[in-house]
Amino acid sequence: MIFGYSRNSTHKQDLQKQREQLTNAGCEKIFEEVMSGGILNRPILNSMLEQLRLGDVIVVCDYSRISRGGIKDMFSLIETIEKKGANIKSLKESWIDTINPQGKFLFTVIAGVNELEKNLVSQRTKESLMVARSRGRIGGRPKKDSKKIEMAVKMYESKVHSIKEITNATGVSKTTLYRYMNNKIRDLNNNKYKS
After folding, report:
1. Coil, helix or strand for 121?
2. What would the mean pLDDT of 157-170 be, rounded to a whole number?
3. What b/e sequence results for 56-70 when a residue is b if at least 16 CB atoms lie within 10 Å of its CB, and e otherwise?
4. Average pLDDT for residues 6-17, to the nearest whole number?
5. Checking DSSP bridges between strand 29-34 and strand 57-60, what pairing results, if any?
6. 8 — phi, psi (to 5°)?
7. Which residues belong to the active site?
8. For position 18, what pLDDT does the model report?
9. What is the pLDDT of residues 60-87, one digit of tens each?
């Protein structure tokens, strides 16, 4: 049997285009899921994997629909599919086609090159940070002005201003504001328990 698998991260995205592509590719049964691709343990994906039998094929529009968790997750998924005696094929990335030996080999080589590139970028970033530190500079985002953060916290605690008004007035992002508020609450709780 030819299974189709389509996925989007949110309900705002429409699965119709994927559905049409999978139908045109001859999929007899299409599994549709709305969930992050970085999560490998997905209910609909798991249901499809349980139904796989010897000779079945999973077709995806592109491989990011079935796995966004990196090459390790993709290999784990392909291993699970192959243990069932089934195969996977991507419509967009023709090199992901485990039906034939050349496809399996090409997938392994390209996946390895992608992993190597990711590791090289990581290594270059670490080396650049080490060089910057040796020159007295610290990497990462610059720290926010403490006076602006204090003002943002006071505005938040006054319960007069909306988050949007606070971020526009101070330039402090919502994430930064919430992080400082959470730290403040945690510190207050810690001091309460010490007393």
Report:
1. helix
2. 86
3. bbbbbbebebbbbee
4. 84
5. unpaired
6. -130, 160
7. 9
8. 92
9. 998 878 876 666 777 778 888 888 999 9
pTM over 0.85: no
For residues 122 and 70, what is the distance between their CA atoms, to the nearest angstrom?
14
C-alpha to C-alpha distances, 35 to 3, 45, 67, nearest whole angstrom: 19, 10, 11
- DSSP secondary structure letter of residue 140: S
For residue 98, the tally of other CB atoms under 10 A from its CB is: 21
- Token pair for 69: 């968790």
CATH architecture of 2-97: 3-Layer(aba) Sandwich (3.40)
71 token code pair: 């090459």
Boundaries of CATH 3.40.50.1390 in the chain? 2-97
pLDDT of residue 184: 74
Site of tokens 């999560």: 39
